[in-house]
User: What shape does this take?
Amino acid sequence: MWIAILTLTVIALIAGLGLGFAARKLPSNSSELVERVNDLLPQTQCAQCGYPGCRPYAAAIVEDGEAINLCPPGGNDTVRRLADLLGRDEIPPLATGPAAPAVAVIDESLCIGCTYCRAACPVDAIVGAHQLMHTVIETECTGCELCLAPCPVDCITMRGS
Amino acid sequence: MAGPAATYDLGKLHGGLRLAARKSESTGLPIQSLPLPRQLILPIDQHVGDPAQPLVGIGERVLKGQVLAEPPGTLGAPVHAPSSGEVVAIEPWPVAGRHGDPAPCIVIECDGEDRAMESWEEPIPYAELPGDTVLQKILQGGIVGLGGAVYPTAQKLMQAVSCDLDYLILNGAEWGPYISCDDMLMRERAHDIVSGARILLHALQLDCAYIVVESDKPEAIRQLAAAMTDAGDERLTLKQIPTIYPSGGEDQLVQLVTNREVPSGGLPTDIGCLVQNVGTAAAIHDWLQAGEPLISRITTITGDGIANPMNVRARIGTPLAEIAEFAGGYTEDARHLVIGGPMTGKSVSNDRVPLVKATNCILVMSALPANGPELPCIRCGECAAVCPVQLLPQQIFWYACADDEAQLREYGLIDCIECGCCDLVCPSHIPLTYDFRMAKARIRELADEKARAERARRRFEARNERRQREQSEREAELARQKAEARQAGPDAIAEILKRKRREDGD
Assistant: This one.
């Protein structure tokens, strides 16, 4: 009997040490999980979740257990997919209403060429130079609305696509 | 029977249906030539790919065969003037296109003289030209696949040339009941089809072509056999296949004729076959041997809502109303106008729409086939038994309802050819094909969204990287200036400050 107990203890010890070593030394797979969460996010980079972009939000979800219902552009579908991926049981409704897809449009007759919106665009979808008219590259605009606030002459509007 | 007998060594086709043909109504008369209409309406988007861009302006006089619009990109086909006259408008017009909405069209007021361009009627000695030149020439003819898919023929051929091809297959099997335009074409213009096939063989540098005809077209087979005897070309073989819907589908035809299965998501060229419609072959003959680009086509006008069902050869752009009038007009109980066959056709609400390169059949019916109320799926499996692509429609339907994209891909929704067989046999009257079409659109939408998100992510990351780089560059520059000043020592700084003050003072 003692032999059996000893054998099992040794096996348990070896396995425990092995697992402990793996947990400490091998790279954790949380970065991989962050990537998978990031893949589910709509990549509008709109910062409406309170984080400066989709990847930081993904990292916050995985590492700090942030709520998964903070992404208006993703809508309830994204919340559901995130809950599926993360194995969270309850699926909270979106904190705010879902955002309809839209693109920013600059009223080019009013634009004064201040470049503030260009600096604010998270995906470099606004072109223009100092003192020259700016315009939005429609196909690249994610509709994040981050360019609206900095505009000193309020010449940017959102238009549904 | 004269000439080579049609052979029967066949591959297997899964499923399919034997449908009532209903073709005899429209095959009683020879192909009729429609008189020149007063107005021709030419959509600039009659093909797969980018819409062509108009080259003519309003008020310009054009001649028959003149190029009106050219495709801007690599995929597309030019649009030619079907007759001479004046361009009176370039505007949106209702069309029976792929999207159903009004589409930009070039409207020509015909002058009735039908004057052609001068460079016509010079047969091209294609046999002396290299294959590439022939393909380029075909590209200029505005020829697209006339079976209904309207994929630009030249591009299809150019893509095929780079593949390892074994067979050219000319598709003489029609896509469903009522349609008889290919049948009539094969009966009356077999020589042109054979000539077109030989041009294609030359352009592709191939030495084996099958002309495939369904067994319910004995007259077409007789005429083709005679034409092949006259041509005396060893490379051509006539094949007969049983009349099972949808044997006219490209992949199904390849499987029937060669017993090779087109891989999921693949093309017949992946397994060494190139399929062309017989009408396309005749159009290639017309262009290279008679100098006539694709400005007319044969179309079947039939159904119980038409007084004299028949096949007509009409100019592209002719309003359907004129074709219907030529065919004796509508009967009293004409209610529905369908473009394409009864299985996959599209119901349109208005007969002002023009005949386009894709219009193989105009069907006028008194009533659409009655379908009872939709009931829940009882999982009888009838749909799986008839599916020619060997999918499991009931399972796909399940996942389509659940909007489960991963499973829809897994179960091969993308390979569905939308033939409508499953609809027809479903005892619960579930509109499966419609649901599948919607689900396909949804999958495409999701893929687009995904691609867009991916692009936005890359741009966001690139921007962050750039900002970081700029920040570190700024810091490095500052550090360098500091170090420089420190190296120069306090005296130098005082010197610089003094000079600066002197300059400001000036």
Summary: The interface with chain B takes residues 38, 41-45, 53-55, 122-125, 140, 142 of chain A (CB under 8 Å).
